[in-house]
Amino acid sequence: MSFLQPNGPVIDLGVNIDHVATLRNARGTVYPDPLRAAMLAEQAGADVITLHLREDRRHIKDADVIALRPQLMTRMNLEAAVTREMIDFACSVRPQDVCLVPERREEVTTEGGLDVIRYYRQVEAAVKQLQGEGIRVSLFIDADEAQIGAAADMGVPVIELHTGRYAEAGQGELAHELERIRRGARFGVSRGLKVNAGHGLHYQNVQAIAAIADIGELNIGHAIVSHALFAGFENAVREMKAIMVAARLAA
């Protein structure tokens, strides 16, 4: 629900707080506190709090997820790899949403979408286990019709389109990547899916993605945490949400 348009949804912002934990872990301190960041984000208009519990615990820790779950006023969107450890942990915490993502320990950040077709059985088993606990499941996938179709066939209600290629595209590829996301979002909606998007989005490139009417939510973290160093956390969230809403209303 937009804080600028309280009578109806425009586009939702999920604030990813991973890199608050990255900064904390760099010195092994208890600050900055991801829980405080989540509270400030909600007060500033965030609709969702997103966090990724990686297998190597490089930023968010198990204790962070457990502490956050009862404190959030909005929704927790827990990103997790398709492993027994992560799925069992998610089922024990029972966030409102779990987004299944690919994960390689050597990567700096998630480099692409989950290959639902190749790992269909493993993903399907994880989805069924999570749904059995009443958790809404989304799949973080590329804007590819075959992958989107496989997600719809699996019975998940939500997908999140990976926008990394768009974010990294040069001027000659930008229009192509944007159109690929538009087509993917349109196809996802036609298959009855709620379509979210995220990865690599920041204050200068989010407008075109936010303007896509078929996308219901954007998940953004690194750019907001970075801007918060200069603008303050609440201001950084408010600015991002205002940019997104303005882009949607102008589309």
From TrEMBL:
Q: Which reaction does it catalyse?
A: 3-amino-2-oxopropyl phosphate + 1-deoxy-D-xylulose 5-phosphate = pyridoxine 5'-phosphate + phosphate + 2 H2O + H(+)
Which pathway is this protein assigned to?
Cofactor biosynthesis; pyridoxine 5'-phosphate biosynthesis; pyridoxine 5'-phosphate from D-erythrose 4-phosphate: step 5/5
State where it is primarily located.
cytoplasm
Q: Which Pfam families match?
A: PdxJ
Q: Is Transferase included in the keywords of this UniProt record?
A: yes
Q: Where in the cell is it found?
A: Cytoplasm
Q: Where is this site: Transition state stabilizer?
A: E160
Q: Which residues form the active site?
A: H52 (proton acceptor), E79 (proton acceptor), H199 (proton donor)
Q: Indicate the quaternary assembly.
A: Homooctamer; tetramer of dimers.
This chain's protein is named Pyridoxine 5'-phosphate synthase
Lineage: superkingdom: Bacteria
Annotated residues that bind 1-deoxy-D-xylulose 5-phosphate are located at D18, H19, R54, H59, T109
Which protein family is named in the record?
Belongs to the PNP synthase family.
The entry's function note states: Catalyzes the complicated ring closure reaction between the two acyclic compounds 1-deoxy-D-xylulose-5-phosphate (DXP) and 3-amino-2-oxopropyl phosphate (1-amino-acetone-3-phosphate or AAP) to form pyridoxine 5'-phosphate (PNP) and inorganic phosphate.
Q: Name one GO molecular function term.
A: pyridoxine 5'-phosphate synthase activity
- Which residues does the annotation say bind 3-amino-2-oxopropyl phosphate? N16, R27, G200, G221, H222
Q: What is its EC number?
A: 2.6.99.2
Keyword field = Cytoplasm, Pyridoxine biosynthesis, Transferase
The scientific name of the source species is Massilia frigida
